[in-house]
């Protein structure tokens, strides 16, 4: 029988943003899984009881066959017995066969809730933890490889439980029962032949499988590389098209697939070698057992029924053992996959709530940056001793060249990162001392690049406040001046926006983002270069919606185009992570400094070329 069934385990390489495999032992991984299963301890115990019942019934079948054969063996004066005894034995045989299947199905039925429940709990915990990890982790991760790790880990829960509870444990129970019967009923040589054959078989299988692990690792690494490249290429579909690089991408993907193919072929060769060796060991042990049983029948020490029973025992015993190599590989791979996912779950959170953190208490939405310094990498500081205040209900704009640290201010205020020096407060409360959820609940953002979910327009607007009614969604859309556009489409608010919102124009996406923020209705609003990706006509059209969204809000405007910040209560000029100028638009022009130079330059750039 061919035993392919070779699943892919998770790769052992440490790609960017993904944890490498830990040094945790297989037993430690099992202990890590155990609490998820122990929540269903009564189901586990019931499943084990059904499993024992199934194996007792299974072992009873050969015993019954022996009695049936011995009963049918010609003896003097047995004519009347033939009319009654075989019928009873045949009925008993049918009941035992049925009991084996019944107990097996009951075991699976009872334990299904535990298996699915454990897989659900682990998957949900991983999902929550990934959302709790820092922005740095998600900027470095490779989506394709990480999702494959999670998928394998979840599948590993099912495989590990099914292989151990449905294969290993039942086989051990059956083996114990068979060896006990053989040792009690016949001579010990039957037990020794079986035990030695099994020991050699197990040692051979484990040794060869461990040797084959290197080929599986290589195969899995190459599989993850191919997956990551495919996902990355498809996510950047437009860029591929812009540069006519379809064949280049196909070539890279094909090269990855070819390396995977070669590794898979090498792995299959070693698998065939393992399977052949296993079959040879099984054949030799079966011949020895039948030789011993046949000799016993010839010598008169055993009946024909005994011969049939021994043969049936060996067939029943070696059918599951025939798959030991597959089972062992699956268990090892499942443990590897689970460990990979557990390592991901144990990835340290860079930003976490303080032990005594409470939600933001006050209604004051004043924002202060007090002597804030920050660097993504120690050798490259981004912000240097930055201090400013945004009084409640006012607008402060930050302008400056690219790389000056403007968007970092928004990331720090959202607490995607923690400051390394100084502090940021909302209403006088240090945001590191309150819960992250309450900080982010108090802030709304319209980013430069609005990324939408591949769902309906209504879903994307309602994302600002899940559970909002259609009327509230439409009201927000009207305030963002996108309702008429949505209503004019054939499906209205049920129109899907495509992957990352690519079915909408830049201006339409920005209006959806504004509507989403208006629906959230936070006291603090951030516009992070919200119009820099738009043309001048769209920029002017959206300015009024941005002003509407900022009305009576504490607003931080991060801008490249100075025309969008002329009405701000205060403008900060950031250069090299330092505030070099601050004041109103008129005051900064009067200073004839950096801001005035930027203003003059942008006015020249805005003039039409004749």
How does this structure look, described?
- By secondary structure, this protein is of the alpha/beta class.
- It has 3 domains: 26-345, ABC transporter type 1, transmembrane domain (ABC transporter transmembrane region fold); 354-442 and 523-610, P-loop containing nucleotide triphosphate hydrolases (Rossmann fold); 450-521, Rossmann fold (3-Layer(aba) Sandwich), CATH 3.40.50.
- It is built from 19 helices and 10 strands.
- The chain has helices at residues 26-38, 41-72, 79-132, 135-140, 143-185, 188-235, 237-242, 246-299, 304-321, 324-345, 406-413, 436-441, 457-462, 470-479, 483-488, 506-520, 536-550, 585-591, 594-606; strands at 367-377, 380-390, 395-399, 421-426, 429-430, 443-446, 524-528, 554-559, 570-575, 578-583.
- A 6-stranded mixed sheet has the order 6-7-8-3-9-10, with helices on both faces. Strands 2-1-4-5 form a 4-stranded antiparallel sheet, covered by helices on one side.
- Strand 4 (421-426) and strand 5 form a beta hairpin.
- Helix 1 packs across helix 10 (324-345) and helix 3 (79-132) runs antiparallel to helix 5 (143-185).
- The longest helix is centred in the N-terminal third of the chain and has 54 residues, at 79-132.
- The chain is elongated and about 120 Å long.
- The N and C termini lie far apart (81 Å).
Radius of gyration: 35 Å
Number of domains: 3
Number of strands: 10
Mean pLDDT: 78
Secondary-structure content class: alpha/beta
Per CATH, the class of the largest domain reads Mainly Alpha
Proportion of beta-strand residues: 5-15%
Unreliable residue runs: 1-21, 78-84
CATH architecture group name of the largest domain:
Up-down Bundle
Strand order of the largest sheet: 6-7-8-3-9-10
The CA-CA distance between the termini, in Å, is 81 Å
Order of helices and strands: HHHHHHHHHHEEEHEEHEHHHHEHEEEHH
Helicity, as a percent range: 55-70%
The CATH topology of the largest domain comes to ABC transporter transmembrane region fold
> Tally the helices: what do you get?
19
Largest sheet: 6 strands, mixed
Give the name of the CATH superfamily of the largest domain.
ABC transporter type 1, transmembrane domain
Taken from the alpha-carbon principal axes, the silhouette is elongated
